[in-house]
Amino acid sequence: MGAVTAHWSWDPSLIYVAVAGLMYLVGGLRPGTSRRRQARRREDLLRELSFVAGLLTIVIALDSPIDYYSEQLFWVHMSQHIILLTVSPPLILFGRPWPRMWQALPLGVRASVGRTLAGARWTAPLRLIARPAPAFVLFNANMLAWHIPAAYNLTLSHQWIHNTEHALFFFTGLLFWAHIVDPGPLRQRLNWYWRAASVTGSMILGWILAILLVLVSTPLYPHYAHLISRPGGISALTDQQIAGGMMWVPGSVAYSIALLAIFSRWASPDSELSGRGPAPALVRS
Questions:
Q1: DSSP codes joined into one string, the chain
Q2: Which of 95, 131, 140, 253 has the greatest count of CB atoms below 10 A from its CB?
Q3: pTM
Q4: CA nearest to 51, candidates 12, 91, 13, 99
Q5: Residue scoring higher pLDDT (269 or 151)
Q6: For the chain, what are the domain ranges?
Q7: 106-115 pLDDT per residue, tens
Q8: Which residues make Cβ contacts (< 8 Å) with residue 46, sequence separation at least 6?
Q9: Which residues make Cβ contacts (< 8 Å) with residue 232, sequence separation at least 6?
């Protein structure tokens, strides 16, 4: 039992997971949402399972032995990033969290917050970065910037920077995937071809980073290069190449699923190429 429970930690992300899970549960118990669930029980069950799975992947990435070994093996650290960028956000968004979590708040709070978000000047930057183009740029620029060797080493030397990196991965992931998964209700819909372009562009940028990690002839990250030993006895360069392979193959899975869903909608007889018709099951709210 000790070996199974060893190297689990209490990351601050657990607070987010607990609060989000509680709000989702309470919001789902409201009378209105219960009636809607009875009418669409199977679909709602899938969404609930997806939301729970998304929260669990955050725990796995940040509190399980993955987090412990991420400081010893670069490829494990890359797996952690892949989960936070491409697994947790779409799973959570497919659970359509905003309406249910919103319902968990008292009516007066909802009214006050809604008015503030809709009209306050200080929220204008938030509304701006939630648009499709800024969300795409932030998601990918953030992903690439943190993998610059100097920035990467900072995260391994200062825990608060490391926590900030993980938070930015996840929240920029929410911004980006919200325009692909389309969770509602505060959404600006992309045409299907722009969704395909956004997913493809992000996947290609990940490939560029992966190819660099695989083909470069020397270790790029001093923290891993200077380790005396690593689990499995692999070299620093082999560790880096495996990390590139993780970004290349597992890192492309979520993008590939999204593209298949988009193209299947395009190919369907009732497809509306304007992109404002119903969304396919995997990317519809």
A1: -HHHHTT----THHHHHHHHHHHHHHHHTSHHHHHHHHHTHHHHHHHHHHHHHHHHHHHHHHHSHHHHHTTT-HHHHHHHHHIIIIIHHHHHHHT-HHHHHHHTS-HHHHHHHHHHHHH-GGGHHHHHHTSHHHHHHHHHHHHHHTTSHHHHHHHHH-HHHHHHHHHHHHHHHHHHHHHHH---SS--PPPHHHHHHHHHHHHHHHHHHHHHHHH-SS-S-HHHHT-S--GGG--HHHHHHHHHHHHHTGGGHHHHHHHHHHHHHHHSTT--TTS-SPPPGGG--
A2: 95
A3: 0.85
A4: 91
A5: 151
A6: 11-283
A7: 777 777 777 7
A8: none
A9: 73
CA nearest neighbour of 63 among 85, 91, 83, 87: 83
- For residue 111, the model assigns a pLDDT of 74
Instruction: Tell me which of 43-47, 115-119, 125-129 is least confident.
Output: 115-119
> Is the separation of the CB atoms in 40 and 2 below 8 Å?
no
Cβ atoms of 222 and 153 closer than 8 Å: yes
Contacts of residue 82, Cβ cutoff 8 Å, sequence gap at least 6: 246, 247, 250, 251
Query: What's the token pair of residue 177?
Result: 């995937």
